[in-house]
Automatic annotation (TrEMBL):
GO terms for molecular function: peptidyl-prolyl cis-trans isomerase activity. Residues 1-25 form the signal peptide. PANTHER family: PEPTIDYL-PROLYL CIS-TRANS ISOMERASE-RELATED, SPLICEOSOME-ASSOCIATED PROTEIN CWC27 HOMOLOG. InterPro entries: Cyclophilin-like_dom_sf, Cyclophilin-type_PPIase_dom, Cyclophilin_A-like. It comes from Emiliania huxleyi. Its main location: nucleus. The keyword Signal applies. Keywords: Nucleus, Signal. It is found in: Nucleus. The keyword Transcription regulation does not apply. GO terms for cellular component: catalytic step 2 spliceosome. Pfam families: Pro_isomerase. This is PPIase cyclophilin-type domain-containing protein. Coiled coil: none annotated.
């Protein structure tokens, strides 16, 4: 996935759509006993769709949905862009929203799902140690075999359309 150009300039692209508000539930194929939530995220003049996977990361998806319900993702900037690695977001421009989610504390680590590598378009929380996930999320740019080996590096979803994936 080549995510470059004006739609992914750090601090210029904004997540405008709240993830839950635009989310739709669709059955997960075959054996998975859960739902997949999809949302469209508006970035400048384009958009992309993220599929949240509670079967991969139930605690992570629950946090993303809670943040979306509260409006945390509205007008949220991408603050870190590393070409061929990731684009990161999760620091609210609203001090009140950021304080609220900091007061909720970090979330526990989800078990890593088997067979889900960090390939192009994977959505995950950033972390730094056991049970350290809070509000920072990232989307991978290309295959990242160095990710997914620590307990906090768990995919919560993936980009399914709007970007070459």
């Amino acid at each position: 996935m080549a995510m470059s150009g004006p739609q992914f300039r750090p601090l210029v692209g904004f997540l405008v759509a709240a993830i839950l508000v635009a989310a739709t539930a669709a059955p997960v194929p075959a054996a998975a006993p859960t739902l997949v939530c999809k949302t469209t995220v508006q970035v400048d003049d384009s958009s992309f769709t993220i599929e949240l996977r509670p079967d991969w990361a139930p605690a992570g998806v629950e946090r993303v949905l809670g943040m979306a319900k509260s409006g945390f993702f509205e007008q949220l900037p991408f603050f870190r862009m590393l070409p061929n690695f990731l684009v990161q977001f999760g620091i609210s421009t609203s001090a009140e929203k950021q304080r609220h989610w900091q007061s909720q504390g970090n979330i526990r680590d989800d078990p890593r799902p088997a067979g889900v590598p960090f390939t192009d378009g994977i959505l995950s929380f950033a972390g730094y140690g056991t049970d350290s996930r809070s509000t920072h999320l990232f989307i991978t740019l290309g295959s990242q075999p160095g990710l997914g080996h620590r307990q906090w590096e768990v995919p919560v979803g993936r980009v399914v359309s709007g970007m070459p994936v």
